[in-house]
Amino acid sequence: MDGKNAIVTGGARGIGYAIAKRFLIDGARVVVADVDEKAGEAACEELSALGDVRFVAADVAERLDVRNLVANALDAFGDIDVLVNNAGTSHKADFLELKETDFDRVMGVNLKGVFLCGQSVARHMVDKIEKGGDPGCIINISSINAVVGIPDQVAYTASKGGVVQLTRVMALALAQYGIRVNAIGPGSIMTDMLKAVVTDREARERVLSRTPLGRIGEPEEIAGIAAFLASKDAGYVTGQTVYADGGRLPLNYTVPPNDN
């Protein structure tokens, strides 16, 4: 990725942070976007030893924030070659009790945000191509919950299913320009959110019982997939969702958890 310029939304922590770090290690310049300004600034300070990284505060569900994000990235680096739509949120509530405002907030960040950022960056990429430049690529972060459901994560599950379909449509619409669009569907990954869950032995065993590989994934493993999808090695891959779930989706039953 030497000389490439990337935007990673939701890059202050977790999977987004790991992707930004991997891109920097691979030679890219990175704009980290996040709604949490304090965490975003701290992340950039940590990552700055690896390469050229900037932070832009942005709520991806807000059109003006997205426009400002893209403008800042172009001002900083002059181009955008890779967009990673990683920003996401969730809200736990029973289907019968879920409030419309909470549903809208999750859908706004997880699905509308992918659309707004994807459209804005794709417009720049198309303009660049029409001027003789090289096509870029877009990577959307979905989830295995695009396929399987969680009863008290109604909006999250619906939004991630939407991301998979949006990825396919974006890929078809942008194929004529050579712009590739793919998604990654992580399973149980050791982010701060999951760490809070698996400190409980019963919860950890429940997670492992549905994971044939017998362990929880690491953010760096998702970053490795993103690095591949952003590379020339994935030059003929578009419209796909790569599920990294330790074998969970093919599993028909549960497996005995490994205490180790």
Can you put this structure into words, describing what you see?
With 260 residues, the protein is an alpha/beta fold. The protein has one domain: Rossmann fold. It is built from eight helices and seven strands. The chain has helices at residues 14-25, 37-47, 63-77, 100-130, 154-174, 192-198, 201-209, 219-229; strands at residues 5-9, 29-34, 53-57, 82-85, 137-141, 180-186, 241-244. Helix 1 crosses helix 8, helix 3 (63-77) packs parallel to helix 4 and helix 4 runs parallel beside helix 5 (154-174). The mean pLDDT is 95.
What secondary-structure arrangement, pairings included, does this model have?
Elements: E1 5-9, H1 14-25, E2 29-34, H2 37-47, E3 53-57, H3 63-77, E4 82-85, H4 100-130, E5 137-141, H5 154-174, E6 180-186, H6 192-198, H7 201-209, H8 219-229, E7 241-244
Parallel strand pairs: 1-2, 1-4, 2-3, 4-5, 5-6, 6-7
